[in-house]
Structures are given as structure tokens and as C-alpha cells.
Write a structure and sequence with these properties.
Helix content is about 20%, strand content about 25%. It contains five helices and eleven strands. By secondary structure, it is an alpha/beta fold.
């Protein structure tokens, strides 16, 4: 886990926005939202490891936004606080429980739809978010530009991860689709096919 390289994504429509994988400090997010005149409506997490959720509880408290996480990862809330403290970040704020994320097509903002794809393996509740109209997929820590997520953390299972990647491959997303992993370089489906030995069927 290298939380200093966690990728967060902000999606907005008009003055409303959502955050995917709310890494970092909530006050930094609040300054960003204020500077752009944006109203935070929701937070979505690809999985429940602390480097992907640390700012979510405080943002919920500050804005009233809803926070969505696959319920299979609810047991990870608060895990890894010692890791966060090593990076100078406060522990996960207790007491705020996320809403259970629906694995289906959901409307995150008016007329902005995303497919939630189940991707267990890195954690039991890992998901990917696919924006078909944007040609964009957020894959969390399931797969990276040239490797896959680790499975030695709570909820990890290499066999499940390989199955998830195989199912993801079989979706046949367009080669031009931009893929944003939870850490590291942004890539595309075509580049994954050409350079990532894990991205295959079976």
C-alpha cells in the first residue's frame, strides 16, 4: 500500500459533484470544492482500504453528502489507522457508516450514469466504475497499468482477483477506454491488453 500515490477522481455536472476514492484531508477537499463553487452530493469508494476512504467520513460530516461503499468491505472501516498516521493523516473518523453500494447501473448525478462492476479479490468488496458515455473506467486497486493489486491485505484472495480480471476482460470495453487505477499511471484497455500479462481470460 502506497497511499501517497492514491488516485482520487472528481466528477461534476453543473454545480454538483461526486468524489471517487476520497483520499487525503477533508479540509483540502473542502477548499477545492469552495474554490470551484461545487456542492458535494456523494462519495463513492472502489473498496474499503484506508487510503481510499480516509477523507470520506469527515466530508460526510461537513457537507451532508452520502457515502457509498460495497457492504462486503464494511468490516474494513477503521482498519489500517496506524498506516494513515505514518503518513501524517488522522485515523478514520468513527461513527459514520456508509450506505451500501448497489452493484448495478446507477445515476450519480442528473443524467450521469455509471455501471458498478463487482471486482472481488484485492478486497471482498472491490468494485470498478465504468462510464460508458465518457469512455472511462475507475478500477481501484484491482488492476494497474502493468500489474495487479496485492492480495495479502484483509479480504484479499488471488484466485478471486484472477476471476474478476477475467470477467472484466470479457466485458470487451472499447480499446480507447481510459482506465484510472487506484494508484500509479493512467492507462487504456488497449494498453492493458498489450502490456499487462494479468489482463486476459482465464
Amino acid at each position: 500500500m502506497a497511499p501517497e500515490f492514491t488516485n482520487s477522481v472528481l466528477v461534476f455536472c453543473g454545480d454538483d459533484c461526486v468524489i471517487f476514492d476520497a483520499w487525503g484531508r477533508a479540509d483540502d477537499w473542502m477548499r477545492l470544492l469552495k474554490s470551484r463553487g461545487l456542492n458535494l452530493k456523494a462519495i463513492y469508494s472502489t473498496h474499503g482500504h484506508p487510503d481510499h476512504i480516509v477523507a470520506a467520513p469527515d466530508l460526510v460530516f461537513a457537507t451532508g453528502a452520502r457515502w457509498f461503499l460495497n457492504s462486503a468491505d464494511f468490516g474494513l472501516l477503521g482498519w489500517g489507522n496506524e498506516i494513515l498516521q505514518e503518513f501524517g493523516l488522522k485515523p478514520i473518523t468513527p461513527g459514520i457508516v456508509p450506505d451500501a453500494l448497489v452493484v448495478d447501473k446507477i445515476e450519480i448525478l442528473p443524467n450521469v450514469f455509471v455501471d458498478v462492476i463487482s471486482m472481488p479479490g484485492h478486497s471482498m468488496g472491490s468494485v470498478a466504475f465504468y462510464f460508458a458515455n465518457m469512455g472511462l473506467c475507475l478500477v481501484g486497486d484491482s488492476i494497474f497499468s502493468d500489474s495487479v493489486g496485492r492480495t495479502d491485505l484483509p479480504g484479499g484472495d488471488m484466485h478471486l482477483l484472477q476471476q474478476s480480471i477475467s470477467r472484466f476482460y470479457s466485458l470487451n470495453l472499447p480499446d480507447y477506454t481510459t482506465v484510472i487505477p487506484g494508484h500509479g499511471d493512467i492507462t487504456t484497455i488497449q494498453n492493458l491488453k498489450e502490456t499487462n500479462p494479468w489482463f486476459k481470460l482465464g
